[in-house]
Write a structure and sequence with these properties.
Elements: E1 2-3, H1 7-17, E2 21-29, E3 39-40, H2 45-53, E4 76-77, E5 80-81, E6 86-88, H3 90-96, H4 112-122, E7 126-136, H5 147-165, H6 172-186
Parallel strand pairs: 2-7
Antiparallel strand pairs: 1-7, 2-6, 3-5, 4-7
């Protein structure tokens, strides 16, 4: 990432303006200057189905995860911006645990911010997306070095997320579908960080 001039000062001011918000996400711009889709909904069975099958593009009811219709030029409350840039309010972190160790270490790289933002949301804290706060994001610059393993780790972390927050949803069929999606995307079996 590359922080654009005055990004941090502006982010602090924006979060201060939104007293209901426990976190703030920024607009992410790629090397090509285009806005990246960097906001997601919290994972649900319907939303993941829409994302994995591509049907969310056509049916808004199952686009709750990828949020393909989000207006990235509008300041708004959102479920979970990607962790590339997040500013947290200390009081919100304290509401869900130790502010010095806010992330659940069972999520080593993916879904750690999703888990934290979900816990904050359940504690009553909103998250605001501010398009005037801008960061440059060189997407995948780190993870593409071990792309296949990172695909598996992402899918494994999604299963961890469901196991932690919605164990009744995580039946054998859903876990199998998530694993099959990893198999297809990674073009084979890879371990990721944890098996």
């Amino acid at each position: 990432t590359e922080v654009v001039e005055e990004t941090l000062d502006l982010a602090v001011r924006k979060l201060a303006d939104h007293t209901e918000a426990g976190a703030l996400g920024a607009k992410q711009i790629g090397e090509d200057g285009l806005t990246q889709r960097s906001v997601r909904g919290f994972p649900s069975v319907a939303g993941i189905f829409g994302a994995l099958t591509g049907l969310g593009k056509f049916f808004p009811a199952i686009d709750s995860y990828q949020m393909l219709r989000l207006d990235y030029d509008k300041e708004q409350t959102v479920p979970q911006p990607m962790g590339t840039f997040l500013l947290f309010r200390r009081q919100a972190l304290e509401a869900v645990g130790d502010p010095h160790k806010p992330f659940d270490e069972s999520f080593p790289i993916f879904f750690n911010e999703v888990d934290l933002l979900y816990r904050m949301n359940k504690a009553g804290w909103k998250c605001v997306y501010a398009p005037t706060v801008v960061v440059k994001h060189f997407g995948g610059a780190s993870t593409k070095q071990t792309r296949e393993s990172m695909i598996w780790e992402s899918h494994n972390s999604l299963i961890r997320y469901f196991r932690k927050h919605h164990p009744s949803w995580l039946n054998g069929i859903l876990a199998l579908i998530i694993k099959l999606a990893a198999l297809v995307r990674a073009k084979g079996v890879h371990v990721g960080f944890q098996s």
